[in-house]
Amino acid sequence: VLNYFEQRCQTSKRMAEQAKHVIPGGVQHNLAFNYPFPLAVTQVSGAHMTDADGNRYIDFLQAGGPTLLGSNYPDVRAKVHALLEECGPVTGLLHEYEIKLAELVCDAMPGVDMLRMMGSGTEAVMGAIRLARAYTGKKRVIKIGGGYHGWSDQMVYGMRLPNTGRMEAIGIPRGATATTQESLPNDLAAIRRKLQWNRLRGGTAAIIVEPFGPESGTRPVTKDFNAQLRRLCDEFDALLIFDEVVTGFRAGMGGAQAYFGVTPDLTILGKCLTGGYPMAGAIGGKREIMMMLVGGIGTTAKRAFVGGTLTANPLSCAAGYFALQEIQRTDAAAKAGRAGDRLRQGLEQIIERLGLPYVAYNMGSIVHLQTSGVMLLDTSNLLKLVRLKNEARQRKHMMEEMGAAYAAHGLITLAGSRIYTSLADTDAVIDDALNRFEDV
Ligand code: PMP
């Protein structure tokens, strides 16, 4: 595998070295795939990407999820070009595409009466939590099981679970996470105990959850978990926040909330919302709660403050509007989902045929291929925590090696364990991919 990178990826290697002088670690994003060094990409289209040395790959990273139509979708690109010709990327005032995108999302998502654009999923989470606290007058927030909700101080809490084996707590004062609590997925009794405990200690403003389970379903939740959370939130007067950054539009136009038939009070959107274009983030929610964002000059209404220089930009909104229209028109979520099913079935057959200790599963276009064992989730005593740390370290290393091996066989994945399919994944692409997976 390393020979491949040495022999076939010299330009990427040189660029990665050059980048290290001016970019910490040589990468602007730490999630995807950087071992043994990040590949420099020159061209992406549909289901494929090409690196700076001319090597071609099947692109199952899909930029980390946002390009459900496939990369660099021509029709959306042309419309974004046209908009740029007319008014450029930003005005700071109002543009019709801001309204059009908001109307489209409000129509599609049961829990979204109003929408406010933000700069990223991280920002949208921060804003939603502030809104929840402002609306309920309570302070604590329960997040579910090491889920990723962006990198804000309060949400980095518990991030040791996914890969590092340590708390990502450097640079974060203890006070910043003092009101964040974490509960394992599916453990409703523990969540109830926290809600009860919180009653006398500032109350619970919200429970925030990725509705398919933490880390895009890396740890899946049971079928009725979300409905149970809804009931608990109602019982304890807390808001239910769905982080639909990944599931938003991959689970269908109505998101995971339509899929599960559970309506959250607030919804976080990102990724697919702008079809892969920048500034992918928004808070959506019930009108009464969202109206807490209004106020200020000339009113006496209480106001939860959020802002952003580039949040009101026509470029992201036009890109999102046209991408979502196209997702709707082409039934992209269902089709990418069928490609995900086909890929997962094929992977299962390979796993069985070769007798590998791996697990493949999918929720539509979000496919997981776990080659490094199942994460131990029980952190209830020190011994288990030490084991968890070791396992997490091994798991991270294994994922990196698998990611590199896939790439050497022409497959780009997310962190060697996750695959996003898209509308561009024809049967031929999936069959080609399965042959490559089998080789690996
Ligand atoms: N929530 C979830 C569920 C995510 O997957 C992500 C990003 N992977 C975020 C929030 C943060 O979004 P962003 O990277 O746009 O800040």
UniProtKB/TrEMBL annotation:
InterPro entries: Aminotrans_3, Aminotrans_3_PPA_site, PyrdxlP-dep_Trfase, PyrdxlP-dep_Trfase_major, PyrdxlP-dep_Trfase_small. Keywords: Aminotransferase, Pyridoxal phosphate, Transferase. GO terms for molecular function: pyridoxal phosphate binding; transaminase activity. CDD domains: OAT_like (cd00610). It comes from the Bacteria. It holds the Pfam family Aminotran_3. Its cofactor is pyridoxal 5'-phosphate. Belongs to the class-III pyridoxal-phosphate-dependent aminotransferase family. This is Aminotransferase class III-fold pyridoxal phosphate-dependent enzyme. It comes from Dyella psychrodurans.
